[in-house]
Amino acid sequence: MEVELISLGASLDPAGILPPIGGEGKLFVAETESGKHAVLFDFGAYQQDKRQREKESFSLLRTEESQPLKLDDKGFPDLAAIVKEMGEMGIQDVDFDSAAHPQLPNYKLLRESLRGVKELTIVATHAHADHIGGLPWLYARLKKDLQNLKITVLMTAPTRELSRWSFYDHLKIAKNKNRRIREQKFGRRNFVKPLYGISEIEALLNDVKIVEYGDVVVTGPFELKFFFNPHILGAVSVRVKISGVGDRTVTGFVTGDVRYKDQNLIPGTPIPTLAKLGIDHYLDFLLMEATYAGKALPPIAEEEKRLVADIKECIARGGKFLLGSLAIDRAQTLFDILVRHGFTDHRSKFYVPVWLDGATQEISSIYTSRLPGSTLADVAKYFVRDRDHRWSVLSSDKPCVMIASSGMFVGGWSVMYASVWATDPRNVIATASWQDPESPGGRLSGIRRGSVVTFGGKRVRFNAEIKRYRPSSHMDGDEALQTIRNLRPTRTFLAHGEEKGMDSVVAKFGSSVVKTKIGGRYVLA
Ligand SMILES: [Zn+2]
Question: Which of 44, 85, 157, 523 counts the most CB atoms within 10 A of its CB?
Fold first, then answer.
């Protein structure tokens, strides 16, 4: 019997095209006497492919034309409205033609690796788009290409709920971009094709099997145990046991994206130990995220202090404070900070209008229902309600704090607020998460104040102050090293991080640490 780990994405790209973070996908294949079985951890999407990156300059959100997703009376996306609009634009046919999609992990390799596999279990570790963004596409595609393959998809209930929003958000973004392309007469050939349509989303979500923390799922020779993982709502880490490898069982641990330290909304956990994982002897492999490997992240409390001080200073000079934010988790974390520091309290001397716009709203509602009693209880009062309201906030001369997605300014309302507010030197435009250096958010740090830049498709004089915060939900260099020290794995596979950071881990632990590459195949036993 042989056990292999195959990296499909979110590893170092030998071709040097794809960024190190995005499009996660790690496949384990085990061949036993009863046949071949496979477990796939995540199938995400990259933010954008290279071609799209170049196109962004004109297709970026420019004006007020984008509309929020319409909801039906149950609070679900109004599917009929989306279908109608997509149909009018001639984009109901989804991009299923290509064997591999430039925005997805390597499907060709996945399909080859699944040759002879009877049963595939897909685990979604959490609902960030770089981990789940390709799943509806993959599920439909596998059903078509490998009709005899039995597929099971596992995720927690919050991950399913957040993923649903993420999938529909993907359609909404495509729809809004295409509407602008049509209105600005850029030509139909520039239309953005979504990766999947509504039927693919619903087919996947209907078949999802919900897992809870502590659950153990057995599939072929694999035994998967799910642990609470402090990253975002619903995230899991997974202990893997593969039995019948020669005369023994191979043991492993998949960290998922994680920060073990307390993040206020999501409580932290101690760095795992073998005892905690229920492993007696030793760990054969550790598959670990390396987003900030080799780096020291400022303590969460320090970042919070700096953010709060900067907001106070900005408000005092009459400025507006824009936080471009990931819709999932980061927006809620930022709002939690604002509440705890009195910015939303009318009686506080730091009171200031606080607003949330874009997909941050929908995700905040999910968080509120899953985290009763948290600071998010009244969050709906802070939502930008509609277009008129948005314009009144945008054009007001009063200070405010705005939390708007997207976090890398690749689209969404954050781009519009930034492109309007950038001209005023009293204002602050801030990022609060990892930035792809190629993204508009990543380029912000290179902008000289007072220079003219194209942002959101507009030429703007960038007078506002640019700030960067990292209240990260990923582990820092020390946590990464401590995880390896605690678990003492025979081999550590690093993914989801930059090469320099990975090198620093190799320098500490030597050749037992592997920097995974896209397309890399690693024999475990
Ligand atoms: Zn994540």
Answer: 44
| pLDDT of the residue at 379 | 95
The pLDDT value recorded for residue 119 is 95
Please indicate, yes or no, if residue 525 is contained in any of the structural domains. Answer: no
Cα(257) to centroid of ligand 1, in Å?
Answer: 5
- Domain coverage including residue 256: 213-297+474-517
Q: How far apart are CA 359 and CA 356, in angstroms?
A: 9
Sign of the CA dihedral running 273, 278, 280, 284: negative
Return the HEC string of 174-208. HHHHHHHHHHCCCCHHHCCCCCCCHHHHHHHHHHE
Question: Which tens digits make up the pLDDT trace of 156-213?
Answer: 999 999 999 899 888 887 787 777 777 776 676 667 778 888 889 999 999 999 999 9
Cα of 87 from ligand 1 centre, angstroms: 33
From the CA of 232, how far away is ligand 1's center (Å)?
7
Q: How far is the CA of 143 from the centre of ligand 1 (A)?
A: 27
How close is the Cα of 399 to the center of ligand 1, in Å?
32
Q: Tell me: do 168 and 258 sit in the same domain.
A: no
Buried/exposed code over 237-246 (b: 16+ C-beta within 10 A; e: otherwise): bbbbbbbebe
10 Cα–ligand 1 center, Å: 12
- The per-residue pLDDT for range 263-298, each reduced to its tens digit, is 888 989 999 999 999 998 899 999 999 998 999 888
The reply to whether 444 and 417 lie within a common domain is yes
Residue 524 lies in a domain: no
Same domain, 280 and 364: no
How many domains does the chain fold into? Answer: 3
- Contact between residue 419 and residue 452 where contact means Cβ atoms under 8 Å apart: no
The mean-pLDDT minimum among 26-35, 81-90, 200-209, 304-313 falls in 81-90
pTM: 0.86
User: What CATH number should be reported for the domain holding residue 279?
Assistant: 3.60.15.10
Q: Name the domain boundary from 468, 490, 509.
A: 468
What's the 231 CA to ligand 1 centre distance in angstroms?
7
Mean pLDDT on 352-377: 93
- CA 105 / ligand 1 centre spacing (Å): 16
Other CB atoms within 10 A of residue 380 CB: 12
- Spatial CA neighbour of 263 closest among 286, 230, 294: 230
Domain boundary among 176, 210, 244: 210
Q: Copy the structure tokens of residue 29.
A: 């294949």
CA of 136 to the centre of ligand 1 (A): 18
Together in a domain, 457 and 371: yes
- CATH number for the domain spanning 311: value is 3.40.50.10890
